[in-house]
Structure formats: structure tokens, C-alpha cells
């Protein structure tokens, strides 16, 4: 089970309530109680586990779990005494059950004595402002938010309801929607990387006069950076997720539900349409348009626009089939030289 020092638990919960949370059907006693969640290999009779990958079918058949969330195809492989909670989306179902047993702690309303809050800042009802946090002049923070230790919120920033700003993150020149999460060390709204060379070989900074707009339910990973726009705004669309150590340049715009994985970088003024995925360590040059539902492979170097629903890999990037054909030819070429 999860370490209670770090993950306070609720429960025990009835099987019927667990099934409802998972969106699953079951056969058996709905009043049966369960104490928590655990992996297939270590779960006990009072714990719920899940299976969403057939490679773990053997672990399913040997599990000691009291209930397993799984697809219909695996229901008959659940051991005797274990309840099959059948759903078309086992991973999503398990995520909701895990959240049932381990809900996020609610904010503790109030302002810590060491926090520095401007006199004209507006703090919503039920919001917690933690130790040594700083809230600048004219900032507005919505209801039910959590602002952890040493967070810095700049002057004029607006933050929607039920947001979570975790330790040491900073926000300036930005407007955040509701249910936004900024993980530790995230940097939002800092000056973008813009400068003009002078005739004598120096660089003069181009004023960065835009903002950052984060849509509802955006999450930004630890130590990720989103630069504010230079003349317009940098926009991260609703429901988008940025992993840790992601760099978003000035004036980048993403649509809804985009995913950018760790150490990826997106250069200025590039547009990602809805539901684009950018895998780890990929790099996108500036002023590109990536079509809706396109997928950029890990470590890809993208230098041209990508059409919608297209998968690309490699550096320079190319459609996936072309990439694998090229790799096959390189292997044959290498084998020929060795011979």
C-alpha cells in the first residue's frame, strides 16, 4: 500500500462504490470492503489492482488481490475469490479508484504568517497561501487554490479557481484558468529569448510585451519554462500537459489536449493544433504549424510543418514509414561495408 506518511488514505470503501468510480461492472457482494490499491504482484485480499497490458496476464492469474480492474477479455483469468471489475478502460478506471482511496488533500484556508501578500491582492475563499509565498500587487487568486511554500506570484497575475501552485514555482505576466497545476520549480511568464544584434557585435534585448495564457486543467511539470510572448501571447490550450524540463518559447500556441514530454523544446511562434503529442527530447524550430493529432517521435528534429494526423521521427524529421525504410537501408549499408 502507499506510504501513509506521504499519501493519506480514505476508506475502506465498498465494492459497489469502487466499481462506480471505475465505471466497471462486477458480480458479487457490493458491500464487500476494500482498504486500498496495489500492484498485481503484491496486492492482498483487501486491495484492488488492475491489468491493462496482456504481458502481465501471468501476474493476473497469480495475484492475491481481492479485486482487479480489467477488460472483458481477461475477466475469466481472474483467480477464484478475486472480483473482476470489467471496464473498457482499465487504466482510467484504476486512476479513478486510486484517487478514491488517496484523494488530494484539500487546501487549508488562510495565509501563513511568513507569506508576503500585497494589500490590494485578492485571495479567493478557501485558498491556502503557504510559508514565504509572495503575492504581488493587484494579483487575483481564485477560490479553493493551494499556493505552497516560496511560490512567487507577480503583480497583476490572475489565477482561476482550484489551482495548485507547488513549491518554488513562479508566475508573472500570466493569466491562468481553473484547475491549473504548476509543479515544483515551474517558471511561467519570464522574458522570452529575443534580442537584436547591433553593428558593433553586441546584443540588445527585444522587449517581451506579451503574456502567458494557460487554459483550464493545464498541468506544467517540474522545472518547465513557458516564456511570455514578445508582441502577442504565449497560449497553452485547455487540458494540455507538459512534462518536467520542457521549454516553451515566446508566442508558442497550443490547442486543446496537447502533450509535451520531458526535455522537449518548442521554439518561438510555433503552433500546435489540438491533441498534438511531442515526445521526449524532440526539438521544434520556430514559426511551424503542427496539425491536429500529429505525433512527434522522441528526439525528432522538426524543421518543417507537419500535417494533421501524421507521425514523424528522426532528425531532420520525416514520416515514420520513411524513417524506418531509411534505417533499414542504413543497416544494410553498414552490413555491406563490414563484409
TrEMBL record:
One of its GO terms (cellular component) is membrane. InterPro entries: Hexapep, Hexapep_transf_CS, LpxD, Trimer_LpxA-like_sf, UDP_GlcNAc_AcTrfase_non-rep. One of its GO terms (biological process) is lipid A biosynthetic process. The active site is at residue 250. Signal peptide: none annotated. Gene3D superfamilies: Hexapeptide repeat proteins, MurE/MurF, N-terminal domain. PROSITE patterns: HEXAPEP_TRANSFERASES. Keywords: Acyltransferase, Lipid A biosynthesis, Lipid biosynthesis, Lipid metabolism, Repeat, Transferase. Pathway: Bacterial outer membrane biogenesis; LPS lipid A biosynthesis. The keyword Disulfide bond does not apply. Residues 35-100 form the UDP-3-O-[3-hydroxymyristoyl] glucosamine N-acyltransferase non-repeat region domain. PANTHER family: UDP-3-O-ACYLGLUCOSAMINE N-ACYLTRANSFERASE, UDP-3-O-ACYLGLUCOSAMINE N-ACYLTRANSFERASE 1, MITOCHONDRIAL-RELATED. This is UDP-3-O-acylglucosamine N-acyltransferase. The gene is lpxD.
Amino acid at each position: 500500500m502507499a506510504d501513509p506518511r506521504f499519501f493519506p488514505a480514505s476508506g475502506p470503501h465498498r465494492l459497489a462504490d469502487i466499481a462506480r468510480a471505475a465505471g466497471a461492472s462486477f458480480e458479487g457482494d457490493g458491500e464487500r470492503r476494500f482498504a486500498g490499491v496495489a500492484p498485481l504482484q503484491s496486492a492482498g485480499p483487501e486491495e484492488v489492482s488492475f491489468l491493462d497490458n496482456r504481458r502481465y496476464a501471468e501476474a493476473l492469474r497469480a495475484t492475491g488481490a481481492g479485486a482487479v480492474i480489467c477488460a472483458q477479455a481477461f475477466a475469466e483469468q481472474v483467480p477464484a475469490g478475486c472480483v473482476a471489475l470489467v471496464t473498457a478502460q482499465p487504466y482510467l478506471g484504476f486512476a479513478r479508484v486510486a484517487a478514491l482511496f488517496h484523494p488530494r488533500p484539500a487546501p487549508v484556508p488562510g495565509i501563513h504568517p511568513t507569506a508576503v501578500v500585497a494589500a490590494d491582492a485578492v485571495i479567493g475563499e478557501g485558498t491556502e497561501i503557504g510559508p514565504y509565498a509572495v503575492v504581488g500587487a493587484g494579483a487575483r487568486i481564485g477560490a479553493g487554490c493551494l499556493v505552497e511554500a516560496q511560490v512567487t506570484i507577480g503583480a497583476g497575475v490572475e489565477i482561476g479557481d482550484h489551482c495548485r501552485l507547488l513549491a518554488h514555482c513562479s508566475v508573472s505576466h500570466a493569466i491562468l484558468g481553473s484547475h491549473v497545476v504548476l509543479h515544483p520549480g515551474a517558471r511561467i511568464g519570464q522574458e522570452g529569448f529575443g534580442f537584436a544584434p547591433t553593428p558593433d557585435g553586441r546584443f540588445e534585448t527585444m522587449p517581451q510585451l506579451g503574456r502567458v495564457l494557460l487554459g483550464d486543467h493545464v498541468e506544467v511539470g517540474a522545472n518547465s519554462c513557458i516564456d511570455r510572448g514578445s508582441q502577442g501571447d504565449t497560449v497553452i490550450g485547455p487540458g494540455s500537459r507538459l512534462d518536467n524540463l520542457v521549454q516553451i518559447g515566446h508566442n508558442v500556441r497550443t490547442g486543446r489536449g496537447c502533450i509535451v514530454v520531458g526535455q522537449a523544446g518548442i521554439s518561438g511562434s510555433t503552433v500546435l493544433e489540438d491533441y498534438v503529442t511531442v515526445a521526449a527530447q524532440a526539438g521544434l524550430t520556430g514559426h511551424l504549424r503542427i496539425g491536429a493529432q500529429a505525433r512527434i517521435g522522441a528526439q525528432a528534429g522538426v524543421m518543417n510543418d507537419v500535417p494533421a494526423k501524421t507521425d514523424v521521427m528522426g532528425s531532420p524529421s520525416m514520416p515514420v514509414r520513411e524513417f524506418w525504410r531509411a534505417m533499414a537501408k542504413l543497416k544494410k549499408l553498414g552490413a555491406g561495408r563490414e563484409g
